[in-house]
Write a structure and sequence with these properties.
alpha+beta; N-terminal domain of MutM-like DNA repair proteins; Helicase, Ruva Protein, domain 3; 2 domains; four-stranded antiparallel beta sheet; 6 helices
Length: 307
């Protein structure tokens, strides 16, 4: 099946969103950034998609000059001018083994998959660490792209601004939603509008902004495409929920683990997500959190205080 059709398939199981990918990036930095890939192993021919024929050859001997993130992708810059693009999929996780063959679990350690048959990619780094990608469902993928070709890369070229970047503000969001006929939630999940947001954090941000997921996206802008107070509140809520989630190491409601094997614990701070039937946490609201299906995904909200 073509790459584009694969990416359009809807799966109900939550995938890692921006905070989870960002915490993984930070966990990999000490082992990868500034270190050379002495040896690379691809222990099968494919993950979600086949590895490029020159995948190993383009990695070995290259130093990782920087480890970044774009939306839900990890991006390792190499001295060759290539970029290694990595996506976790549904169940993909990295772990870092030090030179003594041991990893150091953190305070919230949770044992990840112990089946080493799912250790599909290994990077042996000059830092003395081995970086191992384990993916039981094989829905993750890796691709090497020349940096000067990134602007035309199909996986990246249509992505909107980063929600924590300088470009993303109420003015930008209002312009993107001006005259849109879709719901506010659908607009926020559109990666062309803003990159990296997923179902969990959209639900949480809309709750914090007290905006209904059913509200028309166009209500974020005036007739002149200027931001309304709704747009300003929503941008503040998106910033707040993403920063809080990153600080908490993301949300471990399915397979997400940090590189140490730790659980993220932002799920304990959910205000509406996965809280159907519980009392709304807005002071003096008294409403009940409801769930409904929207664009093929579960939406959680408080009909009483989200308007």
């Amino acid at each position: 099946m073509a790459l584009s059709r694969h990416l359009q398939k809807v799966n109900a199981k939550p995938m890692p969103e921006l905070p989870e990918v960002e915490t993984v990036r930070r966990g990999l930095q000490p082992a990868m950034e500034g270190a050379k890939i002495v040896k690379a192993e691809a222990r099968r021919k494919d993950l979600r998609f086949p590895f490029q024929k020159d995948f190993i050859a383009r990695l070995e001997g290259q130093t990782v000059t920087g480890l970044g993130r774009r939306a839900k992708y990890l991006m390792a810059d190499l001295t060759s001018g290539d970029v290694l693009l990595m996506h976790l999929g549904m169940s993909g996780s990295f772990r870092v083994l030090k030179g003594d063959g041991k990893s150091t679990p953190g305070e919230f350690h949770y044992p990840r998959s112990e089946d080493r048959a799912h250790d599909h990619v290994v990077f042996h780094m000059s830092s003395g660490s081995a970086v191992i990608f384990n993916d039981p469902r094989r829905f993750g993928y890796m691709k090497i792209i020349a940096r000067n070709a990134l602007d035309e890369e199909p996986l990246l070229k249509d992505l909107g601004p980063e929600p924590l970047g300088n470009e993303f503000d109420a003015t930008m969001l209002a312009r993107a939603c001006h005259n849109k006929k879709t719901s506010l939630k659908a607009a926020l999940l559109d990666q062309r509008v803003v990159a990296g947001l997923g179902n969990i954090y959209v639900c949480e941000a809309l709750f914090r902004a007290h905006l209904s997921p059913r509200r028309l996206a166009a209500t974020l802008a005036t007739k002149k495409a200027e931001p309304t107070d709704h747009a300003k509140r929503l941008v503040e809520a998106i910033h707040a929920v993403l920063n809080a989630a990153i600080k908490a190491g993301g949300s471990s409601i399915s397979d997400h683990r940090l590189t140490t094997g730790e659980m993220g614990y932002f799920q304990h701070s959910f205000q509406v997500y996965d809280r159907e039937g519980e009392t709304c946490r807005t002071p003096r609201c008294g409403g009940i959190v409801k769930r409904f299906t929207q664009n093929g995904r579960s939406t959680f909200w408080c009909p009483k205080c989200q308007k």
